[in-house]
Amino acid sequence: MVIREAGLMFRGFTVCNGKFHQTGAGEIDADLRSGLLTAMLNFAETAFTSEPIEYFEGKKFVIAFTQDECLADDSRQPEPLIGFAILDKRKKLDKYIKKVLIPLLKKVINKFKTEFEGKNLSEISQFRGFHVEIEKIFGMESKKIDQRLTGLFTQKL
After folding, report:
1. What is the pLDDT of residue 105?
2. CA nearest 69: which of 16, 11, 120?
């Protein structure tokens, strides 16, 4: 499966993300998308289930989620920190999300919390370099098949 983008949302904003492949011709406003996704998750979890939502499935793409909590310096209570990934829709989606994608997203969340928990999380510019960590964690999972093959044949032995 091809992961097109992965990142973290906090208080309805994307605090950091890694973009690996385009999802369409136009550019989507990240803040608008994050606010909408956060609202959809909150609505779905309140209206339909007491369990966290794992993914939304569309015709071409899937958006998967995992959640944790993070404490900001301006809050007394931990607040939701949502990891997300946008990927191509394929067969055996449920198994891939549970076995591969969710552990990777949890790794991103844990790394983020190690570096930034307890700090001012409203100043998003401080997270600009964190996309490198996201790219490292997702590694080969973010590559298309031809990119994976090229990487195999160009490695030094």
Report:
1. 94
2. 11
